[in-house]
């Protein structure tokens, strides 16, 4: 599945422990350091997908954690991941204000993406993400409206669940799923259209 479905166990699924650490961090800064180590990479990858360079992403990531620490008293429970990414979302948006939004597309996949067109929707988008180095696929994602690119960045780079993405974007979990399926259908249809046009040339 494209969105992660987490339980309360395992190294990547510790919402209760994270919430406890964040509450303890209000008293003991060392606890915030543990959360910093746990979330730094995810926040950085999210920033990298939204910004134009690794250096810019590093600077904004540092600012995200600075703001999180400064605003720690504002945490009132709930998903710690969503709380961090809400701060990241706002920080990146402020950084991009006055600039054209961008989405860095540093994928790692290889091979022929066209073979995936018969896959289920979630698999189609996962395969698309794996092969986003391809100029054509990168252009399709970059052409999406900003909110749709943001949804992809939060779910792909941030690794958030649909519920957590909804908390960041102010939408219900169901609305996020519906938006996700619309994005998949749109990308798939446009990719197929472009392939058909190329085959006719």
Task: Reconstruct the topology from this structure.
Elements (H helix, E strand, L loop, with lengths): L14 H11 L3 H22 L3 H17 L9 H17 L24 H10 L4 H8 L3 H11 L5 H8 L3 H28 L1
Helix pairs in contact: 1-2, 2-3, 2-4, 2-7, 3-4, 4-8, 5-9, 8-9
Q: What structural keywords apply?
A:
201 residues; 9 helices; single chain; mainly alpha
Can you walk me through this structure?
The protein is an all-alpha fold. About 65% of the residues lie in helices and about 0% in strands. It is built from nine helices and no strands. The chain has helices at about 15-25, 30-50, 55-70, 80-95, 120-130, 135-140, 145-155, 160-170, 175-200. Helix 1 (about 15-25) packs across helix 2, helix 2 (about 30-50) runs antiparallel to helix 3 and helix 8 (about 160-170) packs across helix 9. The longest helix is centred in the last third of the chain and has 28 residues, at about 175-200. The radius of gyration is 18 Å and the shape is elongated. It starts with 14 loop residues before the first helix and ends with a helix. The relative contact order is 0.13. Mean pLDDT is about 75; it is low at about 5-15 and about 100-120.
